[in-house]
Design brief:
Elements lengths: L1 H17 L8 H14 L11 H13 L8 E2 L4 E5 L4 E11 L12 E8 L5 H6 L18 H14 L23 E6 L10 H11 L4 E5 L20 H22 L3 E7 L1 H12 L5 E5 L5 H5 L13 H12 L12 E5 L10
Parallel strand pairs: 5-6, 5-7, 7-8, 8-9
Antiparallel strand pairs: 1-3, 2-3, 3-4, 4-6
Length: 357
């Protein structure tokens, strides 16, 4: 059995190598990508999409124009929750604003959803702002199996197992310490490609809120995901290349507008995977970003889809058709040089199947 397993592992990795995919990834990464492809089907079967020229035009304009003004409205009151990860209480509320690229998005995605997370009890002024009585729309647990009581227990177990990674008091801080524990500091966290309801960025928000209880931590949801998912979208599947580019352009435009709206003297932009990539591109187009925290980012969508990333296994378009468009829309070398970033922290993994180094 062991010999068969070793042989199967070798044969599988050799086949990946021959096809030009990252062959040193973990088998868990490979299994997840293959399962998603089996469950949802390949991405971009609809081709470029009818609005590809419009979204490329919006991206070109974004590179040369300042952030747009937004009017953020709070749609739910503050809700108190307990974090099994930080073992502290935190408070969260939901807001929304019209996306700066609303004209390029489906009707269901035009209002951007953002959750503000705080590690200290909101003051009277903050409570007075949250007069809305809407739903928070933020699931209490990540969707693992689709069965609520199972999801809650698995989610708690995952957080308990990861507690020890959150204790970093013996590790030197990468940035100068904030003596005000987050006062006058705004932080925006962008989710990953499949980050429905910010399910993977919420734990980051919980940890940051615990360390900086007076900071305003904003979790921005990407277009076409979670509360903004149009009818007919299944899981994380992207029917057209236009859709993925609209999602990325929306994330950049909305995050830089949100940072401008926050108006704090210290503004940090963070992101996970695709969110980290979009955070880097936002810094290229924003005068407000002073700090970056990029978790497993790519330098371009080319890395994920045409240069060996495992997502390319579920790609329904020809690589040569995608490559020039991905370079224009997502390669950091095609964007202006960031001018205001003072500190940047980048976390990468040697054998990341999604973003091969």
């Amino acid at each position: 059995a062991c010999a068969a397993g070793v042989g199967l592992n070798f044969a599988g990795r050799e086949r990946l190598r021959q096809k030009g995919f990252h062959s040193d990834c973990s088998l868990l990464d490979l299994s997840m990508v293959l399962w998603k492809g089996y469950e949802e089907g390949p991405h971009f079967l609809g081709g470029l999409g009818p609005g590809i020229d419009a979204i490329l035009g919006a991206i070109a304009e974004m590179k040369r124009t300042p952030p747009r003004d937004i009017e953020l409205r709070w749609k739910s009151p503050w809700e108190k929750r307990y974090s099994d990860l930080s073992r502290k209480d935190f408070w969260v509320r939901r807001g929304e604003f019209l996306s700066p690229i609303a004209e390029c998005l489906p009707a269901e995605s035009r209002m951007a959803t953002v959750w503000e997370v705080r590690g200290s009890q909101p003051n009277d002024e903050d409570l007075a702002e949250a007069v809305a009585s809407g739903d928070l729309l933020l699931p209490a647990a990540t969707r693992w199996m689709g069965v609520p009581w199972v999801d809650r227990r698995v989610d708690k177990l995952v957080r308990l197992l990861n507690r020890r990674w959150s204790h970093t008091s013996d590790v030197p801080a990468p940035f100068p310490s904030d003596t005000g524990a987050g006062a006058s500091q705004g932080i925006v966290v962008l989710p990953d490609f499949g980050g429905e309801h910010c399910k993977r960025s919420l734990p980051v928000g919980e940890l940051v809120a615990a360390e900086l209880p007076n900071a305003s931590v904003m979790l921005l949801e990407m277009p076409l995901r979670g509360t903004r998912k149009p009818a007919g979208y299944v899981g994380s599947l992207m029917p057209t290349l236009e859709g993925m580019m609209a999602m990325g352009c929306g994330a950049i435009e909305e995050s830089r507008a949100l940072l401008q709206w926050q108006g704090y003297c210290r503004l940090t932009l963070a992101g996970i995977s695709m969110g980290g990539h979009m955070a880097a591109l936002t810094a290229c187009c924003s005068p407000d970003v002073t700090r970056l925290a990029l978790l497993l980012p790519a330098h371009s969508g080319e890395a994920n889809w045409v240069d060996g990333g495992l997502l390319g296994l579920n790609n329904g378009m020809a690589r040569e058709e995608m490559q020039p468009l991905l370079w224009e829309a997502t390669n950091i070398n095609a964007y202006p040089v960031p001018k205001s970033v003072q500190h940047a922290l980048v976390v990468a993994a040697r054998n990341d199947g999604y973003v091969p180094l």
